[in-house]
Each structure stands twice: as C-alpha cells, then as structure tokens.
Amino acid sequence: MRILLVDDEEELVSTLAERLAIRGINADWVTSGEEALKQVENEHYDLAVLDIKIPRISGVSLKKKIQAKHPGMKFIFMTGHGSEDDFKAGSKETGPEFYLVKPVDITTLIDKINVALNIRGDVL
Amino acid sequence: MNAELDVVYESSLQFFGKMNASISHEINNVLAIINENAGLLEDFAIMADKETPIDPARLKTMAGKILAQIKRADTMIKNMNKFAHSVDERIKYVDLNDLLELAVALSNRFASMRGITLELNTPTNPLFITTNNFFLENLLWQCLDFSMDAAGQGKIVALNAEMTENHAVIRFSQLNGLKAAPGMVSSVTMTEGLLDALKGRVTTDIEAGVMTLTLPADINR
Q1: At A39, which CATH number?
Q2: CA-CA-CA-CA dihedral for B165, B170, B175, B179, to nearest 10
Q3: pTM above the 0.90 mark?
Q4: Neighbours of A38 (CB within 10 A)
Q5: pLDDT in tens, B118-134
Q6: By residue range, what is the domain housing residue A76?
Q7: B37 to chain A: which residues are within 8 Å by CB?
Q8: A32, B60, B147, B191: which one has the fewest Cβ atoms less than 10 Å from its Cβ?
Q9: Distance from CA of B87 to the nearest CA of A (A)
Q10: Which CATH architecture has domain B92-216?
C-alpha cells in the first residue's frame, strides 16, 4: 500500500508520514498541488490524503485532476476549516465518511484508509 | 440608520467573520501539528518500552518543533486580540504602521493561498492618524484583496505609507496585472460608503501599477 499526503503545512505532513511509517504504511508527502500532480506522474499511489484548502488550487480540483489520470486511486480529505461549503464540496466527492477534520486521530485515519482500500484488519 | 451605513456595517460584520474564520483555521493547523508531534513522542515512548533505542537528538528536535508552533500560535492570538479590540473605540488616534502590520498579518494566509507575497515597507518613525480604526482595517483588506488580484505574474504586492501635511498616503504597488488588464480598475468594488465614512479616496495609476489610498490625518477635521 502506498499513500500520498498533500498539505501546505510541511510539519504536519512530514510528521504524519513518519507516524504512518511506524505503523507499516508507506507514505510520501508534498506541500503543493503542483508537486502532487508531478508526484503521481512518477510514482504509483493507492490513495491520497488531501487538504481541502491548499495554495493556488482547491483540494477538490486537485482530486479531480489526479482522478482523471488515475481513476483507480482513492481519496480522503482533511480540513482545518469546518465551513459548510467546504464540507459539501468535499463530502460530495468522497462521501462524508472520508472527510476528516484536523486534528485527526491516527487510528481513525488508518481505519479510513483501510475502508477506502477495502483492507481488512489492522495495519501495523 | 440610513441605507449606506447599513451596507457599511454589514460589510464590517462580513469582514470580522472572514478574518476570525481565517485565524481559527490557522490555529487549528497549529494544533494539528502539535497533535502529530505529541503522537510521535508517544510512538517513541512505546518503541522505547519495547527496547528500540531512541536518539535524544531526535527528541530535542521534536521539542523545538512544538515550541516553534506554540510561538506561531501566540503571535496569531496576539493579532486576534488586537483585531478584536479594534472595535472598542469608534474614532482613535493610531499609528498607521501598526495598523498596516496587522492588516498584512491578517491577510498573509489569503495571500499565501493565492501564491502572493505581501511586502510591507514601513518607515521607522510613527505615522499617527485619527480615524475609525476598524473601518480602516476593513478598507485595507479590500484594497489588499483587489491588489492581490491585480498583482499579475510578479506575484508581489508592495505596501508603503507616508504622511503629508494633512493626509496619510498608502500605496499598493507592483500591481503588474493592471497594465495587462486595465479594465480591472473598473472592477474595484470598495464597499459603498466605507470610503465616505473614512473621508478617503482611491486613485490608480495603471501604467505604474500603483493604487493609492489617501486618508485625512484627522477624520474629525
């Protein structure tokens, strides 16, 4: 399983990637939509965790762009913004169960990753 | 209350809400980072229990990261507090430099989302004016919002201010996009009545890529 984390807060995604690695999940991270698009061109990912608000492009637009080229990829949105509009836009794309509000509990995130990728049992 | 003032107060409330939503979003990001670092410390503690050696230098780095985020949140909260208190007095004697610093600090996240850098060049001497503090913060945001749209390829908005005998002059420059799309000027949508309420005026020099906001040094005169 390979995951891509996209959030403009570098400290957040780098630490989250390390915590996922401790649990046996291979996660790369980038801090912009441009880097994310480049990364998915060069590497294979099963799932991307996207911030709903990143500089210069919305998480929803980024998801659509990635999905157009990689239709099998799954997505989870993370947001620090609890606005109604963001929730509607994000949950319309992934379903409300894959729309997480920061700070995110790592166990919850891993559960969601497993459900999105149809993986049974704990990944540790 | 007349219709023009209704619009000004409605715009002020929208501005207040927008800034508070932005600040709370940023504070939430800080909490999320602290949450992940605390979680990683917990992970290391569990690993140490299982006799996996942990490098003390690594722990020191993590403590440094947490302290840096606390400092970041402290700055945000101080700005939030200053902003909240700007409605305490309707008319106030203020240093324009402080007001511009606050306006830029509040707008930085919006600028970053648009890939824009805000460059504030304030003089070392204070620029005291008597004005409606909160309305001016709102007007500065509206000027910055327009300037960010007008920044063009340069992706920089520069701000500076100076006093003339009876006026404060604030310039928003490097608006390179104005030359490419001069029609943008007609789309400047300052809240109706806000300029009147502050007795200010806005002019633009399309060729130079500059927008100038002029305000009376004392709104009561």
Answers
A1: 3.40.50.2300
A2: -40
A3: no
A4: 12
A5: 999 988 999 999 999 99
A6: 2-116
A7: 11, 15
A8: B60
A9: 25
A10: 2-Layer Sandwich (3.30)
